[in-house]
Amino acid sequence: MTDDVPVLTIDGPSGSGKGTISRAVAHRLGWHYLDSGALYRAVGVAAAWADLDLDDPGALVRCAFDTEIDFRETPDGDLRVLVNGHDATDELRTETAGAAASAIAAIPAVRTALRDRQRAFRRLPGLVADGRDMGTVIFPDAAWKVFLTASAEERAERRYNQLKNKGVSVTLAGLLREILARDARDASRAVAPLRPAPEAVCIDTTGLGIDEVVDSVLALLPGRGV
Ligand SMILES: Nc1ncnc2c1ncn2[C@@H]1O[C@H](COP(=O)(O)OP(=O)(O)O)[C@@H](O)[C@H]1O
Ligand SMILES: Nc1ccn([C@H]2C[C@H](O)[C@@H](COP(=O)(O)OP(=O)(O)O)O2)c(=O)n1
C-alpha cells in the first residue's frame, strides 16, 4: 500500500527554495524526490515544440497525457529531465517555461492528467515532494507538510543569481515582475491554488541560509536524516 510510504511535502511560491531544500532533505533522508513543477514545465516545453496554442485547452490536455517525461540523475548528482526522449533540462528552467507552465497549470484537466504520475513517485523508503499543491491535493495524507515563503524581492534576487550563474541574460526588475505575476496566477486560480495546507509548518526563509532551512525541516522529522 503506497499509503504506508512516508511523505514530506514542501510547497511554496517561485524562488522560495523548494527545489534546493527538497533535494537536500531527500538526500539526507535517503528518500525519493518529486519536482512536480518540472512536470508542468515539461508539458509547456512539449507544447512549444509542437507549436500548440496555449489558448487551446484540449490540445494542452492531450499534450499532458501524451508527453513522455523522464528524470535522470547523473553520476555527479545533476537532475536531468527528458521530454519525449530529448534532454530539455536547460529549457525547462527558463522563466519562459515557468510562465507557460503556470498558464497550463491553471487548466483543471491538465492537473488531472498529471496527478497519477505525481503519486507514482510515492515509493519506499519515502518521498519528498515539492510544488504548489503537494500538501493540499496530491498527498493530503502526508505526515509532514512544509510551506516555504520569502519576500518577493529576495526570491527574485535568488532566481536572478541562479539564472546568471547559468549564463541566462535576465534583469532583476524583470524577474521580480515575472515572479509577482506567477505568484498571483498560481494563488488565484480556481483549481489547486498555491496556499499552505492547514497543518503545514510555514517557514519564511528570507535572510535564512540553505543549511538553516534544511535543518529546520529535518527537525520536523525526529530521528530521521541524522
Ligand atoms: N534560503 C536560501 N538562501 C539563499 N539562497 C537560496 C535559499 N534557498 C534557495 N536558494 C537559492 O535560490 C535559487 C532558487 O531556489 P529554488 O530551490 O530553485 O527555489 P524554488 O524551487 O522554490 O523555485 C537557487 O539558486 C537556490 O540555490
Ligand atoms: N505542483 C505544482 C507545481 C508547479 N505548478 C505550476 C505553477 C508554477 O508557476 C509552474 C512552475 O513550477 P516550478 O515549481 O517549477 O516553479 P519554481 O521553481 O517555483 O519557479 O508550474 C503547479 O501548478 N503545481
From TrEMBL:
It holds the Pfam family Cytidylate_kin. Residues 9-220 form the Cytidylate kinase domain. ATP binds at residues 12-20. Keywords: ATP-binding, Cytoplasm, Kinase, Nucleotide-binding, Transferase. It catalyses: dCMP + ATP = dCDP + ADP; CMP + ATP = CDP + ADP. It is an enzyme of class 2 (transferase). The keyword DNA repair does not apply. Its EC number is 2.7.4.25. It is found in: Cytoplasm. GO terms for molecular function: kinase activity. PANTHER family: CYTIDYLATE KINASE (PTHR21299:SF2), CYTIDYLATE KINASE/PANTOATE-BETA-ALANINE LIGASE (PTHR21299). Belongs to the cytidylate kinase family. Type 1 subfamily. NCBIfam families: cmk. HAMAP family: Cytidyl_kinase_type1 (MF_00238). This is Cytidylate kinase. The gene is cmk.
